[in-house]
Amino acid sequence: MSQWSQVQQLEIKFLEQVDQFYDDNFPMEIRHLLAQWIESQDWEAASNNEAMATILLQNLLIQVDEQLDRVSQEKNLLLIHNLKRIRKLLQGKYHGNPMHIAVIISNCLREERRILAAASMPVQGPLEKSLQNSVVSERQRNVEHKVSAIKNSAQMTDQDVKYLEDLQEEFDFRYKTIQSLEQSDKNSALIKQEMLALQAMLNTLDYKRKEVLSKIGRVIHEIDMLMSNMLTEELLDWKRRQQIACIGGPLHGGLDQLQNCFTLLAESLFQVRRQLEKLDELLTRLTYDGDPIPVQRPQLLEKVNFLLYNLFRNSFVVERQPCMPTHPQRPMVLKTLIQFTVKLRLLIKLPELNYQIRVKATIDNNRRFVLCGTHVKAMNMDESANGSLSVEFRHLQPKEMKSSAGSKGNEGPHMVTEELHSISFETQVCLYGLTINLETSSLPVVMISNVSQLPNAWASIIWYNLSTNDPQNLSFFNNPPSATLSQLLEVLSWQFSSYVGRGLNSEQLNMLAEKLTGQVSYNDYQLSWAKFCKEHLPGKSFTFWVWLEAILDLIKKHILPLWIDGYVMGFVSKEKERILLKDKTPGTFLLRFSESNLGGITFTWVDQLENGDVTFHSVEPYNKGRLSALPFADILRDYKVIMADNVPENPLKYLYPDIPKDKAFGKHYSCQPNEVSKPSDGGGKGYVPSVFIPVSKILNDSTDPHSPSDLLPMSPSVYAVLREHLSPTVIETAVCCKLFHS
């Protein structure tokens, strides 16, 4: 079943979440019509590879054209209209930046997987629940409402300033007219009456000046309060959501809304600044005793400038954290001399700033590393599909300085991956007479010199971003805090949903919890960093995290379709395995990950002896080396067991609890029985062709198969003998020669 088919079967509350992240950037119509094709492409790799993204965009447009041809034949007018509009939209938005649509589609697919994983959980995880707090949503709406009200107030004050200007011009004219009269004319009753009218007008001017200053003061106060409280909280919440998204959590949205708020506030402050400049202009033309402008204007202008400085400083954010294109799902782990990408945005989107702001990237000041490549670029509105004022560095490389390289040999493996660094960015904004220096930094990154350090480095990134919302605590691992186990388990499930397309259910998480704690109940359990990543599991030569990372790698490379279909129970102990199988039909089996072999998967089936006793058999775990030679689904289909001197037979009948094996795995078989190579097929090279057949031999005094010499080549003559004893509809698979010759 395709991922999109699974999404469509979700409950309405989950479908509403799906609806939120499909818009004109990636219309849901395209997701629906091209579901299988979209899911078969590697959008994650394309999101950091421009050439690949360009090809995928072209292929996407070709797919849309093919759908257009189809619906045109069906004369579906509405769908024809929508597809034409969507094709034009996609072509226009992404022609100059194809990687952006790759990022969008990759994020949408990942968010679908996360929602599917969440739907399979009995309750929402604590971290995700905190990110979807109703109080937060209410505050977002309040911020947008207040920003809109402030913008309206600033525009209304513009009208008051214009009225004040017109009133003062009239006063100037009438006053200068009287001043131009002869002295004798000034003593007339008419002129005295005019002087009284001028005095009344001056009183009105004074009142209006005070009123305008008061309104300006209120607008400034409203902006100050909004920035100090709700807007700051919104920005901090977005940064926290970004942290969680980086380690596999829910897709972090809301930056466009924040940009809208920041931009409107900046426009309002600049509008107020112009109003104060206009008042200064009016002051030079007319002042009087008790004039409020020279008293209040300097203070108000100072406050406006202060708010603008703070608004700009807070608006300079890292939109996409540093990430190597080769490992898009492991952000903030950087390998020396390997390029990484990072994207920054200025949330104040003003046309005057386009291509006017040059951003410089540097690494932290310990002088151990330097950045190579283009590290100074101008922000612009052309590279982003949504027109944001941003800059993306795509060719930066961290390089270790020679002076420090010599001392690295004294460091242990954990010290390398627990050392945190940050990528810093600085720029300067010059606008309307203001010069504002801006600085921001990435979340802490871990530098590695060898890809073998990647698993432990990623563990450090997970632990940091799970445990703290401090964006710059580079000494965090000097004394790493413990983590709440329930939150850690939620993050571990995200690793599976984001990396291999299916999260973990409560039973699987309970097994992991028991493995970490040795306890069945783990409410409020605090797990140490050492227990997670540094201390070996009891009786093993590896840590919990290394064991789990090896399983992720195994799934990704060798059993991904089986995992996504939900047919791999995976995380189940030997004890629980036997409890589950003991009352099942003989031949019922389940798949679980090895607890003693890194990156191994095994299967155990239940059998019944002649005396009625139940017995269990587990095959030696298959690792990536053996699975590279033969697909796991084919192994399950073709696996044979020789009991003493009996005819080889496949003991695997039903996948737990009672799913016929071929029904579960049939679509994943690589070929059909009659497609097995014949001896003449390979004659061109002078070799006798061979096939691979996994076989185990169970001795009378053994309950488990001996270690099978799987995947050894079988000659056609031996193969022919085996076929005499097997149904032609069953796929043959490798038999160790000694088993057949003994």
Write up this protein.
This protein is an alpha+beta fold and 742 residues long. The chain folds into 4 domains: 3-120, Orthogonal Bundle (Transcription Factor, Stat-4), CATH 1.10.532; 134-313, Glutathione S-transferase Yfyf (Class Pi), Chain A, domain 2 (Up-down Bundle); 324-401 and 415-449, STAT transcription factor, DNA-binding domain (Immunoglobulin-like); 506-668, SHC Adaptor Protein (2-Layer Sandwich). The protein has 27 helices and 22 strands. Strands 16-15-14-18-19 form a 5-stranded mixed β-sheet. β14 (588-593) and β15 form a beta hairpin. The longest helix is centred in the N-terminal third of the chain and has 58 residues, at 189-246.
CATH homologous superfamily assignment of the largest domain: STAT transcription factor, all-alpha domain
Number of strands: 22
Distance between the termini: 45 Å
- Report the CATH architecture of the largest domain: Up-down Bundle
